[in-house]
Amino acid sequence: MNIALMAHDGKKELMVQFCIAYCGILARHSLCATNTTGRLITEATGLSISLYLTGAQGGVQQIGRRITYNELDLVLYFCDPTNRRHEASEQAGEISRLCDQYNVPFASNVATAEVLIQGLRRGDLDWRDIVNPKK
Fold first, then answer.
1. What is the domain count for the chain?
2. What domain range includes position 10?
3. Comparing 56 with 15, which gets the higher pLDDT?
4. How far apart are CA 4 and CA 50, in angstroms?
């Protein structure tokens, strides 16, 4: 499965800790991330991650395009509801909207991400292979 990892600044450390905890599951999948988040995760876990631009420089839009082209199977975007930056809220909203539109499982917090990761481990998301067959 193709998984995108993203996090607002206030949630990057939580994303790193999440990836440390679930490194064994994540390592069996293709991962991509916005630049800063991806670098932090790679440094902490050694996971191989395709990096896009930072969120503010267009990385969110790059991941959004992958959703639109049905190239992602799962998006984990840890959002900080206390973030006062309007741009960050808009970007998270756009990713969430695209995931809804294209039926891509989406988690905006660690609780939902844990449910999705456990479902991924059990094979509950294998239906994505039918929607997005490997070439």
1. 1
2. 2-131
3. 15
4. 9
